[in-house]
Amino acid sequence: MTLKGKYALVTGGSRGIGRGIVLKLAQSGAKVAVHYYQKEDQAKATLEKLRAAGTDGFLVQADVCKPEEIRRMFAHVKSEFGALDIFVNNARPEVPTFYDGPMTISLDMFDFAMDSQAKAFLVAVREALPMMRDGGRIIAMTYAPGGRFGSWQPWVAMGAAKAALEVLCRYFAVALAPRQITVNAVSPGWTDDSVFNTLPQAAQSMIRNWHEAGWTPMRRLGTPADLGNAVALLCSSEANWITGQILDVDGGAALMDAHLPLEIQQIPPKQGQAA
Ligand SMILES: NC(=O)c1ccc[n+]([C@@H]2O[C@H](COP(=O)([O-])OP(=O)(O)OC[C@H]3O[C@@H](n4cnc5c(N)ncnc54)[C@H](OP(=O)(O)O)[C@@H]3O)[C@@H](O)[C@H]2O)c1
Question: Are 180 and 3 in contact (CB under 8 A)?
C-alpha cells in the first residue's frame, strides 16, 4: 500500500496516537502537516521522525476550540501543500478541562468538550473540502464507549462530544459520497504512549491489569502504531467503498459482555493468575 503523492493533515499529531498516525502515513509515502497546540518540542520530534521516514511535512499550530484558528490552520496547509487528500481529526484537550460528572459539570466545561470535537470537526471539514481532492479521506478519532455507555460519570462531556462527532461522520459521509470522499471514525481501545500515561500510576496499573486479564481478548493495550496502521488502511485505495463507519481498533475489547464475569464468558485467567 502506498500513499505516495498524497497530502495529509493530522490534528494533535505532536504526540500520542496522533504521532503514531503521522508516522504511519509518512512511512506509506504521504507528506504530512503535523498539527500541535502547545507542545512545539514534541511536534518537532514528530517532524524529525517523519523526515527520517523519507518524506516531508511541516508544523502547524492551532487551538481547535477556536474556529478562526482552524481556518488559519487550513490556510497554512493550503499555502504549503496547495491540496489535501487526508484529514485526520485527532486532537483532544487535556482531561482536566472537561472531566466532571453530569450533575456538577459547568456549562463552560461542557461547551469546551463539544467545541473541541463536534464543532471543531464541523468547521474543519468545511475548511478542508475546497482543497481536498476527489477520492479524499476524512477520519475522526473517537472513543465510542464514551458515547455508548453512561457508567464513567466524569466522561459525560467528552462522551457526548464524541457521540456528536460520530453522528457528523455519518452525515458528512453521505454529503461527500458524490466526490468519492470517505468519512469514517476510528475508536481506539486504551492505548499506551498517550493520555493513558498521564493518569496516576495506580489508575494506569488497574486499567492495564484489567485488559491483560482478558477484557481485551488480545490481552494488551494498543500502541500508537496500531492506530496508525488502522488509519493508513482506511486511507488506502482499497478502502474506497467504506464510509460512514466506526471502526473499533481495540484488540477485541468492544466485543466483551459487561453483563457476565470473564469465567462465564470462558476467558481463561492470565498466565500466572489464579482461576
Ligand atoms: N489514548 C487513548 O487510550 C485513547 C482511547 C480512545 C480514544 N482516544 C482518542 O484518540 C485521540 C488522541 O488521544 P491521545 O491520548 O493520543 O492524546 P494526547 O496524547 O493527550 O494528545 C493530545 C493531542 O491534542 C492536542 N491538543 C490538546 N489540546 C488542544 C487544543 N485545545 N487544540 C488543538 N489541539 C489540542 C495536543 O497538542 P500538544 O501536544 O501541543 O499539547 C496533542 O497533540 C483523541 O481524540 C482521543 O479522544 C484515545
Answer: no
